[in-house]
Amino acid sequence: MQDGSIWRSVQIACVYIGTVVGAGFASGREVDQFFVRFGIPAFSMVLLTTLLFIFFGYRMLRLGRILRAHTFRDATKVMFGKRGAWLIDILYVMMMFGLTVAMLAGAGELFRERLHAPYFLGVFLTALLSWFTVRHGIHGLMRANVIIVPLMVSFVIYVGLQTFLQHKWPVHSQWIISNTNPGFLHAVLSVLFYIGLNVGLSAGVLIPLGATAHHQKELKLGSLLGSLALGMMLLTVTFILLCYGQEARNYALPMAYVAAHAGAWLEWIFPLVLWAEIFSTIVSNVYALAFLSPNQGKQRRWLLPLILSLAGLLSAVGFKSIVQYGYTAFGCLSLLFLVALLRTYHAPFHREQI
To answer: Using an 8 Å Cβ cutoff, are 327 and 30 in contact?
Structure first.
């Protein structure tokens, strides 16, 4: 691969990571909901999740390249037919909008808990910068994530190393197991819901992103790099929360508790890192909503601020409540899309050489 192709693969990986990693992941709330509560078996669950990240991420990118898809809807027409696509598009818009509400709620919680600033100040500033970025389309997403993602990865690795030096091993994990006692089936379902939530809802970005690649190798390397980085981050956050135990889990933002105990300067840098991760997911979600049709140039002038304004108002529901009840429902519905992706991937036109 040439240097240009490698750089495009890195950009694809960064957008993949930035789309998946949001307030739920960075704060630790989502990781606790889907993994940490299972105790030590969570580590094997993360490994399975990483493999599924690679499997579905590449297929979504490749589907976009094959179809030369400008939007998510170009793929749903092929996968579900005209009638089925109409229903899927409605469900997808609802879920993406709900996830945008959750991210803005996370920004508000961050300003209130860590900066002691008004909740809606955080919502407003985040929405404003998101609007400015999404105006530049897919290239705006790439530029934003190439800056944000290395910051996120570095922070997680550093906190993980600090936690290992202080705790060595998650001694609190047995307490978690004895108080939850989840079974094997629940663990598998939790992984599938997590993949459905994070990969299924990334389709609005990954499918049109695949169409921007010049070569198939760029998609393979990009999805591999992105998935491995996501798996490493997920494994590290799981380890951190198991080490700190129930005290961290009781926080709306568990990683904020960790940052406060891992080092004085980390307590100050954590809000910046968390906000960056929230921002990266918001711009991906809003991009997917605003670019559902390639022929909406004039409508986007009012559609972007409308989406962000409504999501900002609804964010008053609160971040913890949205993650606890909404994320699992979103993940379940998104699994339908991934099942359809498997079926479509083996259709005759997918065996063509590209």
So the answer is: yes
Query: Which DSSP letter does residue 115 get?
Result: S
Alpha-carbon gap, residue 69 to 75, rounded angstroms? 7
DSSP letters, 89-113, are HHHHHHHHHHHHHHHHHHHHHHHHH
Pair of tokens at residue 143: 């530029």
Q: Which of 271, 250, 252, 276 is nearest to 260 (CA)?
A: 271
Hey, how many other C-beta atoms are within 10 angstroms of the C-beta on 154?
11
Question: Who contacts 149 (Cβ-Cβ below 8 Å, separation ≥6)?
Answer: 13, 14, 17, 18, 21, 229, 280
Crossing angle for the helix pair 216-244 and 254-262, nearest 10 degrees? 70
Whole-structure pTM value: 0.82
Start-end of H helices in the chain = 3-20, 23-27, 29-34, 42-67, 72-113, 119-134, 137-167, 173-180, 184-198, 203-210, 216-244, 246-249, 254-262, 264-290, 300-314, 319-321, 327-345
Q: Which residue has the tokens 């105006």?
A: 135
User: Where does the pLDDT of residue 180 fall: very low under 50, low under 70, confident under 90, or very high at 90 and above?
Assistant: low
Confidence of residue 249 (pLDDT cuts 50, 70, 90): confident
Furthest CA-CA distance within the chain:
57
Residues 252-261 have a mean pLDDT of: 80
pLDDT at 342: 74
2: left (phi over 0), alpha (psi -120 to 50) or beta: beta
Residue written as token pair 């190798």: 217
CA–CA distance, 218 with 127 (Å, rounded to integer): 32
Q: Please, what is the Cα angle at 283 between 87 and 119, to 5 degrees?
A: 105
Residues 6 or more apart whose Cβ sits within 8 Å of residue 234: 25, 31, 35, 46, 49, 50
